[in-house]
């Protein structure tokens, strides 16, 4: 399987070249074009691209301090509900090659770039609400509870946690910026712009300024402080708000 990002950084598309039996898992309604030898199937909830089903409860906690999630079988309704809580669709789409030399092109909803994150068994990523586009390889994408700081940061109560071996692809609004943080190195990012960060990175919701008045009057309010080691990806534009009600609903879920 090969992939490439075309038309970056504003009108990006993601093109896959697939051999027989290879497949891509993606957000529904993201396909732009595909060749005749591609079959499409829909699944409820988050679909791991290695096809494994898990139904175990993990009480462990990640290095970012986020509690582990209930793992449900592939295609369960509970998995679909969790996907919606993470800001994604109830369904996922699987594009599978029935023969060699097949192509699929995906296009995100937003005007911006597409970034490919490399996953290793010891190197996963947290994705913020609405960032997920697709995943390949032996990857696992789970929904995890982000706590009150997720709600207050307007990124929602839930985050997506991508682990395994392969690639997960994020869609951005605007261009993508990347910072590699060393151990104990910190970076402050306005919450609207965060896309993804390594699961070795910790984060904390803080005031933009030591003074509450300055934080509020500057328009910055609360921001996230990310501490390394690990990688941080953020976008150069924030999606336009749909108003106060939309903001509250998005933050709650």
TrEMBL record:
Region (Disordered): 47-71
SUPFAM superfamilies: TRAP-like
Domain of life: Bacteria
Signal peptide: none
Bias (Basic and acidic residues) ranges: 47-60
Pfam families referenced in this protein's UniProt entry, alphabetically: AIM24 (PF01987)
Official protein name in the record: Protein containing DUF124
Organism: Rhodopirellula maiorica SM1
């Amino acid at each position: 399987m090969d992939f490439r990002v075309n038309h970056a950084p504003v009108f990006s598309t993601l093109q896959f070249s697939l051999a027989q039996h290879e497949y891509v898992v993606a957000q529904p309604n993201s396909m732009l074009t595909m060749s005749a030898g591609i079959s499409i199937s829909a699944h409820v909830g988050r679909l791991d691209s290695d096809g494994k089903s898990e139904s175990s409860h993990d009480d462990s906690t990640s290095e970012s301090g986020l509690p582990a999630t209930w793992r449900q079988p592939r295609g369960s309704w509970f998995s679909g509900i969790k996907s919606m809580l993470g800001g994604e669709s109830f369904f996922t789409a699987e594009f599978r090659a029935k023969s060699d030399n097949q192509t699929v092109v995906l296009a995100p909803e937003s005007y911006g770039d597409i970034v490919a994150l490399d996953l290793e068994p010891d190197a996963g990523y947290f994705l913020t609400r609405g960032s997920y586009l697709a995943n390949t390889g032996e990857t696992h994408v789970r929904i995890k509870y982000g706590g009150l700081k997720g709600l207050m940061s307007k990124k929602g109560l839930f985050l997506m946690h991508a682990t395994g071996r392969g690639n997960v692809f994020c869609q951005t609004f605007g261009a993508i910026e990347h910072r590699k943080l060393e151990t104990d190195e910190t970076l402050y990012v306005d919450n609207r712009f965060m896309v993804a960060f390594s699961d070795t990175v910790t984060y904390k919701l803080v005031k933009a300024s030591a003074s509450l008045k300055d934080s509020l009057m500057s328009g910055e309010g609360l921001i996230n402080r990310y501490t390394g080691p690990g990688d941080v990806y953020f976008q150069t534009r924030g999606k336009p708000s749909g108003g106060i009600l939309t903001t509250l609903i998005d933050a709650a879920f």
